[in-house]
Design goal:
Elements: H1 3-11, E1 16-21, E2 29-33, H2 37-48, E3 54-55, E4 58-60, E5 70-81, E6 94-99, E7 102-113, H3 115-128, E8 145-146, E9 151-152, E10 158-159, E11 161-165, E12 169-170, H4 172-178, H5 203-209, H6 214-221, H7 229-243, H8 247-255, H9 261-264, H10 269-280, H11 297-304, H12 325-329, H13 335-344, H14 351-366, E13 370-373, E14 378-380, E15 384-389, H15 396-410, H16 425-433, E16 439-444, H17 447-456, H18 461-471, E17 478-482, E18 484-488, E19 494-502, H19 503-509, H20 512-515, E20 523-527, H21 553-570, E21 579-580, E22 582-583, H22 585-602, H23 608-632, E23 637-638, H24 640-682, E24 686-688, H25 689-693, H26 701-713, E25 717-721, E26 727-731
Parallel strand pairs: 7-12, 13-21, 15-19, 15-20, 16-19, 22-23
Antiparallel strand pairs: 1-2, 1-3, 3-8, 4-5, 5-7, 6-7, 6-11, 9-10, 13-14, 17-18, 24-26, 25-26
Length: 738
Amino acid sequence: MQTREFFESIFGAGEGYAVLTTDLSSKGTFFSYPVQLDDMVRYADTNGVNQQVYFSPVLFSQPKREKIYAKTTSVAYADSDVFDFNAYKIVPSLTVQTAEGRTHNYWFLDGDYNPHTIALLNRRVHWAHKDEGLDRNFGHAAKMLRVPGSLNTNRDNFRVTVVVDGTAIYSLAELEAAYPATDVPEKVYGTDKPLDTAKLPDRATLLDKISDDRTLRNLLFDEPIPGRRSEMRYKLESELFRYGFSAEEVLVLVWDAPCCKYKQENRPQEHLWKEILNAEVDPENQPPVDDGRPVDLAAQAASSLDGDALINIYETIIPADFLTAEERASLPVTFIDKYEAWATSHTTSPAKYHRMAALMLMSCVYAEYGHIPFDFEETNLAVWVMLLGNTTVDRKTTALKYMTGILESLETPDYTYDIGSDVTQQGLNKALSERPHQSSLLHADEVQDVFREVFSQGYLTGLVGYWTQLYSGKSRGTLRSTGDKQVIKSVPVNFQMYLTGIVTHVAEALTIKHFESGFLTRFLYTLVEPRPYEPQNDPLKQSGATTAGYVDPVRESLVQHLAVVRNFWGMRGNRSQTTPIRFSDPALARLNEFSFAVKKMIMTSSRFETLKGPIERLVISVAKTAALFAMDDKRQNIELDDVLSAIDLAEDWYDDLQKIAAMISESAWQADLTKLEKFILQKGGKVSYELAYKQFDDKRPKEFLELADGLEDMGRIIQRKTGPVARTLEINFAGTTE
């Protein structure tokens, strides 16, 4: 059975987000099913050649592998472990062998069902055979199973294979009749005990323990989304247990949260207590096992909250979906796909980094010979990218070295690309003056430090304008006097920027005003979720080199391809008179359709004003990418496939653009909150509202009131009336307003 057929058999007619991963400690990679089925197959087949690939048979309502977002499933399933799958009371529709004597089994259902309903059925199956070798870890609504074709590296690199490929379809009633609920004992709570209200802890003390955890505070104090109150409450309970709180402590914290219906409906605490005991024994909600070392609760919470140690934002980001199912199915294999497959087979750097690196390679090599003849200007094909991750574990520098290594292999006396990392105007101006019409790649790591210096030092403000001018393809001339006058001429340039940094630090270094400036709108942003640091990650491996002077044949083919295409364009034009790369009518129509769709999407965003400029530039970057795809195929005309391939990449760019804008906005909000709180502390913990407001001359009255209310909602200050209108702001040293 091919991978595509397997996924189609498992997911049936369902729609939602499917998740695949090669590492169960990660949050996984999400795909919109069925529109991204091709991408799923490519991911599974590419990674499954030499490593493990897992998937969930559940489709989710959001790209988050959590039970509360489980949307639909079309199969019941069991991890048979060493149990003989021929002994099931109903013959499985599909059996996958995961190791010698071990299988996963699936029963195809006659429709799409609630995953929680099927989880209960799975539990019945496992309990019925619990003494016969069946894995007792029954299939909860976020269970991960192995994909056929991949390796089981835990079992001597066993190749996972479909061994029984049936067509039987069952109704839920048939399976429930074979595995009745009477066979399953009542669920036993891990803390099945009566509630002693006299011994409940103090809420203020508990809140103080999580004073720095923004995600938990959002769940504790935010009003729930209409219709999502129960989900938010269970999410809060789950996160508190993962944080390390006891059931009694969770009860106290949840009882006064806006998402708690029990208090709002004047119901007894015992009703909430029963729900909390249920959440306590959920395997997904268990805190880390105490191994005798000091426990860092904050760090544990950060690593378990939706992957939000990196993308920790208030506003929900709706993933982009700009292509139809038919368009996705027709996407060709591009140079970016080939480069990504090669690079990811050698390093654990995220695939998103390598896609950006491949795009930069095409820009550096081809931009010297082509432009898009838009009616408003001859648009050069230089691109700017910013890769933002967590720490060195993300391998940002590794991805950069792979790319610059390819460029180095392409260098000849006539072609050089890498100009290093000197970001100063003086250094760049001198370097670029000696490289008219040539591609010039500037790369810089830890870009947050560059931004802090540029945006905080008044004498450097002109540097941003200079960079922005370079994007348009022109350097500045200068006249300096050092005894003899020295002139540096203004010359045409193809200037590429490849910047990397830590996303949270970049968000702290920038403000929305910076982000809305002409400089920052020109970047394509790539954000990567952090992965948990595990000692067993990234084992040392030997390369395929067996002799001195060994040449990686795949890498060599990539280098040769770029060199051949470069020679093709070099013979048809020159750097000073680049070739116009024109859109066919269908390609231009589809580009404009995308432009309309993406602009329409941001009109409903609360950050519309912030996103307007970057989205305009994003559309131009998609056009540039489509032109680079055409040039890579030695074509002067941009066809529909080129635009579709560029839009496919732009979906990630659009999502990450929203996220970095949200993070910068919220970082500024947090900075204002801290500024206000520190000012109150400096005044002895108590200050008049009017005096505090004077410290924020950039805020309107309503905006400052939102700051004060925000601090009060977090339990960090108290607002007290001292007259008909006057009031004071006071530090809440108890940690709560109750």
